[in-house]
Structures are given as C-alpha cells and as structure tokens.
Design brief:
heterodimer; A: alpha/beta; seven-stranded mixed β-sheet; six-stranded parallel β-sheet; 8 helices; 33 strands; B: alpha/beta; Spore Coat Polysaccharide Biosynthesis Protein SpsA, Chain A; UDP N-Acetylglucosamine Acyltransferase, domain 1; five-stranded parallel β-sheet; 28 strands; globular
C-alpha cells in the first residue's frame, strides 16, 4: 500500500454533555454551526486544505448521524483511491472488545489502521473547535526542529489562562512544562488540542501507556506528561487566527455571533481556505416584501417573511409574517410562526415555534440559567402563544401543558 | 418500464433567442434561479424518475456545460453501471459535427442510442424548466399503447407574442388525448396545449424514424418527422399541471426568473419532495450587513449585501456595496456592485464589476444585458 507522510486521527467520540439537549441524540462534532456547517467540517476542511488526505474519524457516542454525514468523505474531497476519510468505531478482537477508554486509548486501538499507511507523522485533532488552520505549516516546523511532538498553542489573555491547558516554553518554543488549568499560570500559551507526533515515538508511548493500569489513557493527562518527563523534543507551534472551543451553550452561541460583526471576528469569506460541507441542494433563500434582514448570516432554502437581526439562519428555515428573531441561532428546517418573538436563543433542527410565542423574552423568577441563552432541542413543537422564559433549556419531551 | 428507460437531453438549441446569454454557452448551461443551470432541471427530473442512464448531447460552446455537469456526481450519475454520457459532436467524413436541429443531434448520437441497454427513451430539450418525475407520463404512455407521448402544459392563447411565438408548438388533441393536429410557430394559436419539448418513445421506433428520414432535410423531430406521421403513429399528449419556465427569449428569461419571487412558482419549481440538483460550490451562507435593505428577492449563498436590493435574483457570491440600489435585476454569479451604483431592469452575466456611482437602467420588456466579465 502507498505510504502516506501524515495520517490524521480526528477524535469525534465526545458526547459534549455541556451542550445539553443539542447533543442528546447526536455527537458533538455533528452539531450545526454557522448557517450551513457542522463543527466537524472545520477540521476536515482544514485537512484537505493542508494537503492531508488520509484521516481516521474516531466515533463512539451516538455515531449514526456523524457516520451518515461523513459518508465516503466526498464533500471534503476525502474520497481518495488511496487514503481518504474513514470512520473508525470501537471494534472487538476475538472474544474481547471494548469502548475507547480515553483519547490515547482510541488511537492505541487503531494502531493497525495507522500502520497500514506506514506514516512518518500522525496528527491528532479533536472535533470540538471552530478555526481555520494550515496544518502543513505546523508539519513544516515539526520537521525543521526534528521534534517528537509539536503542539499548537494560542496566546490568550493571561487572566483567562487558568481555564486552559498551558504550555510553558523556553526561548526556542521548546515545551518545558505542561500545566492543566494552573491556578498561577506562568505562560499564556494555551493548548489547542492539536498534536503533531512523529509516529514511531508516539506508538512507543501509546503501547507503554496501555500497559500502565493506573493511566487514564488520555493525551493531556498521561501521554504528554510522560513524553515531557522522558525529555522528548516537544515544541509549541503558535497560531494567531480565530479559534474557539464550542463545548458549551455559551461558547457555541458566541462563536455563531462572531460571524456577524463588521468586519466579523471570524470571517467565513476569507481567502485562507474554504470550509466544505455536505449540503442539501436548496434554492437561494427568499426574503419577502415586508421582511428585513440585517447583521445576519442566512443560508439557502430559507423563507424570511419576518424580521431577523443579528442572527444565524441555517438551511431551510422559515420565519413567518410578523415574526422577530434577534441575537439567535436558528438551526436547519426550523419554523418560527407568525408574530412569534425569539431573543437570544438556540432553536434546534426541525423545531416548530407556534404563532405568537415568545422565546427568551420574559425574565425567570429565579436565577437565570445557561448564561441567559434559551435552548430548544430538535424536533420540539412549541404550541402557539407559549412563553418560554430566558435561559430555559427544553427538548421535545417537555410537557407544555404543565 | 422505468427500469427499462434511459434519458437523452439535447443541451443546445439552434432556435434559441437568448442572444448574449448563449453567445458563449449552450442553452443547457444558462444560469437560472440563483444557483442553477438550465440543464439541472431535465437532469434532475430524469434522475428523480429513477433512471440511471442519461446522455447529454452537446454541440457548440460546451465548455461551460462540461465544467458544470462534470462526471455527473451531483445527480448521482457517477456510476460504474450506467451514469452520465456526454455526447460531444464528433467529426467524421460523413458527419461535419455541426447540427442543424435535434434530428441531426440524435443521428450524431446513434452509437450511444444503439448501445444503451434500455428500450424506452425520454428525449428532452434543456430550455423548458419544471420539476417532475416522468413516472405518470410513462404509465400513460403504456396504458394508451402510444408510439410517442409528448408532454404539454396549458399556456394562455392570448399571451403577448414576440420572438417566443417563433418557437412554440401547440397540440390539438382529440377526446382520448391523442394529438391529431399541431399549430407550429403561430402568432395567434387557438390551442392552449403548449409542447414542453419532451417525448417518450421506444428506442427502436426512434431509430427507424431516424433511418427512414435520413437525407430528407428533416431537422426537427417534432415538426419535420412526427407532424407528418400523426395519421400513422399513435402520438399522445400528457398534460403537466405545474409551472413550466420556458427560456426561449431574453424577455421570457427575465420574466421567468422574476416569477421565482412568487411563492407558488417557487413551490412548483423547487418542490420539497423532488430536489433539483446542481454542482455544489461550497460558498458560505449569505451575509447581511447592518445597512442592508432587502425586499422581495431571492439570494444565494456567498452573497454579501450592504446596500438596498428589491425584486432581484442574486446568484452565488454577489456583492452589493453600501449605498448601492438594485431593483428588478438578475445578478449572476460573482458580480459586484460597488458603492452607490444604481441598477434597474438589468441582467448582469457572471463576474461583472459595476464601479462606484454608475447607473444602468433598462426596462422590463427590454432589460439591459451586460456580458460576462465586463467592467462597467
């Protein structure tokens, strides 16, 4: 079989429990983002834009939607004769078989997959982040420094450093210490969860880690510290563009809002690599006579007969006459009924909001939950004239009569 | 029968009156409705019928058509068995490669037609756009015991006619739905049954008719071959009830695009059940700035709107700058309207740049057309 210089392994098995009802039936990487994308489109598009065409996508939690979405990888040009995109669920060997116990264990279980391509380097990515990045530049610096591992880092404001995994480096960017969420951070270089390894070295550590019964089999907790303490050559690769972990309701909402400023904090139109996705073939969106759209991103197949401001509308949404949508994310094929009002909300796929409803407008009696973002899970039908208070999260099993 | 049929699309048309729009592309490659090309409609209709073998006959300027349909993957026609066959003209001692009409085109494609392992053919032009599956028409063809079935729809008889009339065939049917006479290119037709230029025919009959008429100066299959055989062949009409967009003149092109702003026409052409497939460009969604004022318009992905837009069809990747005013326009892919420019009743072909403060005013019946890549 043809040799590949780099094989990418994309960790897409996370449940994303902090996204609540948005991930109750699907894995986090399949969560919609930015009007027509899903989170996983970003690492997959970055890969093909960086000329890396072989990727194993490690799935575990509710993989059906994700498997169907990735398919043969064609939307990202990842349907290659040699290589391409492969969905790698956990599998059994003989009479044993087990789930992926941790990020490192997931790669360990797929050593066979990687070895088929006999790569020199393995790039480990996660499916939780929104960013555009050229992994080829990272590979170049990895090779130039003859590194064993290169970790992408993002300079962040010092006061936020205690929320991240922080890399302390010397003057040559060589990593001297890794601290997970340090109370007193010594550096502001946050790990982006993007690791380039020299494959024979990583393989050795994965095998050793697997034998250690006390290990969590996790890159951040076990592999990276073990390599550091053994004195392997590990470097930080600085990244300066937009990067956002969309693991919480707040950060997912914020990251969507980042598309709307002028100029946008995250520019999907920028020339540094296009983001590909599996799309439904819908005609352009229609915006009606009495309708308006400002400071918004609107995808194909929408019908806008109401008014939308500072919001993201996904493919196939309908805003009926007199409806008002502000500061919100409306996911694919949702309908906002006549004269309904939606404020600072995430409305899931195929949700129907009835006429005259008000979402996220009224203050709750108690403490505001979810940072004040109202979330409605997929397929929910909100009966007409329902008032849903600010910060409420509900799904289709919610009893609106109570 | 569906399992035993193939599709054949004549993507060019020497009768076309689309002028500038077809000066550098075949009729099938004419952009329509914000993100589509004309050929997307017949291709999708055939595929949505369940047919997996489709020939596309091209003639002149088929570059953009080939670029668009490629290997057929967007229509699921990229297959090992069957799939999409691009039938480009080939030059031999006998065949100069130039087609006078669809009869010549069929004759030029005879190798494909003979080889294709299916008995029935759906033969259609690429300039009548509608959204259907041919299943019912094929059932009618069988139950009528027809030799040929032509699709038609009802068009008013008193529509203001111009160049469009030169290109219309109307059917006169008896009570059983059999076509007994035709009105060809009539300025004042009596029949409302307008041909959709799409027929169902048995392959063997098609081949024998082509052979019989060889060297007799026949150019159009319907006008020159079928018309003269209405007594001997059982030719039936099949009525289609939804909207048909006919792209047979510049003014009809303009009108049919604008009709997409009506929800019933949109519903007919882009029904939720049967998709019209097209080549995907992966543009990000359209972005509206704070200064955008958009009314009654259709907007494709990749657009950036900062100015005012009313009654327009915006194709992918169009930019409308701050203070610009665009009314009743069709702006094709990648056109850019700079700040404070003003456009009314204009068709911009692909990638036109309109500079600051420019004004372009056409009329509804005579829209201004600006050719591809022009700078105004």
């Amino acid at each position: 079989m043809i040799q590949k210089k780099v094989v990418a392994m994309l960790l897409a098995g996370g449940q994303g429990s902090r996204l609540g009802v948005l991930t109750s039936t699907t894995a986090k990487p399949a969560v919609p983002y930015g009007g027509k994308f899903r989170i996983i489109d970003f690492p997959l598009s970055n890969l093909i834009n960086s000329d890396i065409d072989t990727v194993g996508v490690l799935t575990q939690y509710r993989p059906l939607e994700l498997n169907r979405y990735i398919g043969n990888g064609a939307p990202w040009d990842l349907n290659r004769n040699e290589g391409g995109a492969f969905v790698l669920p956990p599998y059994s060997v003989g009479e044993t078989g087990e789930w992926y116990r941790g990020t490192a264990n997931a790669i360990y279980q797929n050593i066979g997959f990687i070895d088929q391509y006999n790569p020199q380097y393995v790039l480990v990515l996660s499916g939780d982040h929104i960013y555009k990045m050229d992994y080829a530049a990272m590979l170049k610096s990895h090779i130039q420094r003859s590194a064993d591992a290169t970790i992408a880092v993002l300079p962040i404001p010092m006061e936020e450093a205690s929320r991240f995994g922080i890399m302390n480096t010397d003057a040559d960017d060589r990593i001297t210490e890794f601290e997970e969420k340090p109370k007193k951070p010594k550096s502001n270089k946050a790990s982006m969860g993007i690791y380039m390894f020299t494959w024979p070295v990583l393989k050795r550590y994965l095998i050793a880690d697997e034998k250690d019964e006390k290990s969590h089999n996790d890159f951040g907790k076990d592999i990276i510290p073990a390599m550091l303490s053994a004195g392997q050559k590990m470097y930080a690769h600085s990244f300066s563009g937009y990067w956002k972990d969309v693991g919480t309701i707040l950060s997912l909402w914020e990251s969507n809002m980042d598309l709307l400023e002028e100029p946008p904090a995250f520019d999907l139109f920028s020339s540094d690599g296009r983001i590909y996705s599996r799309t439904q073939c819908k005609p352009g969106h229609y915006i009606g006579e009495g309708a308006s759209a400002t400071r918004s991103v609107v995808s194909e197949g929408c019908q806008i007969l109401g008014n939308v401001t500072h919001s993201v509308l996904f493919t196939g949404c309908t805003l009926e006459e007199g409806s008002v949508v502000v500061d919100s994310v409306i996911m694919p094929n949702a309908t906002i009924g006549k004269n309904a009002r939606v404020f600072k909300a995430i409305v899931g796929e195929n949700v129907t909001v009835g006429e005259n409803c008000s979402i996220g407008e009224l203050e709750p009696k108690g403490k505001v939950q979810n940072d004040g973002i109202t979330v409605i899970g997929e397929n929910t039908v909100v009966p007409p004239s329902t008032h849903i208070q600010k910060g409420v999260m509900l799904d289709q099993n919610f009893d609106f009569n109570s | 029968m569906i399992n035993n049929a193939f599709g054949l699309i004549y993507a060019d048309d020497s009768n076309s009156h689309l002028k500038e729009l077809t000066s550098e592309r075949s009729v099938g490659a004419v952009p329509f409705g914000g993100r589509y090309r004309a050929i997307d409609f017949p291709l999708s209709n055939i595929v949505n019928t369940g047919i997996t073998n489709v020939g596309v006959i091209t003639q002149r300027n088929y570059n953009s058509l080939m670029d668009h349909v490629g290997g057929g993957a967007p229509w699921d026609l990229h297959r090992k068995r069957d799939g999409l066959y691009l039938l480009t003209p080939f030059f031999t001692r006998e065949n100069t490669g130039s087609y006078l009409g669809n009869v010549d085109a069929l004759r030029g494609s005879i190798n494909y037609i003979e080889k294709v392992p299916y008995e029935y053919c759906i033969f259609t032009s690429a300039r009548n756009l509608y959204n259907t599956s041919y299943e019912k028409a094929m059932e009618a063809h069988m139950s009528n015991g027809a030799d040929i079935t032509y699709l038609y729809n009802i068009e008013p008889v008193d529509r203001p006619q111009g160049a469009e009339a030169l290109d219309e065939v109307r059917f006169i049917l008896n009570e059983q739905g059999r076509i007994v006479d035709m009105e060809i290119d009539c300025l004042h037709p009596k029949s409302g049954n307008c041909s959709m230029d799409c027929m169902i025919i048995e392959k063997s009959l098609m081949l024998s008719l082509l052979d019989e008429t060889a060297g007799r100066g026949c150019t159009d299959f319907l006008r020159d071959i079928v018309f003269k055989r209405l007594d001997t062949l059982k030719v039936y009409g099949f009525r289609y009830n939804d909207h048909v967009a006919r792209l047979n003149s510049l003014s009809s092109y303009f009108r049919e695009n604008m009709l997409l702003l009506k929800s019933d026409v949109r519903g007919d052409l882009f029904s939720a059940n049967t998709s019209i497939y097209t080549k995907v460009k992966d543009e990000p969604p359209a972005r509206y700035a704070g200064s955008a004022e958009v009314k009654n318009s259709m907007v494709a992905d990749g657009c950036t709107i900062e100015g005012s837009v009313e009654n327009c069809i915006l194709f992918r990747g169009v930019r409308v700058g701050r203070g610009a005013k665009v009314r009743n326009c069709i702006l094709m892919q990648g056109s850019e309207i700079s700040e404070c420019a003003e456009l009314e009743n204009v068709i911009l072909d692909k990638s036109v740049l309109v500079r600051r403060d420019r004004r372009l005013l056409g009329t509804e019946s005579f829209p201004v057309v600006i050719r591809k890549n022009a700078i105004v």
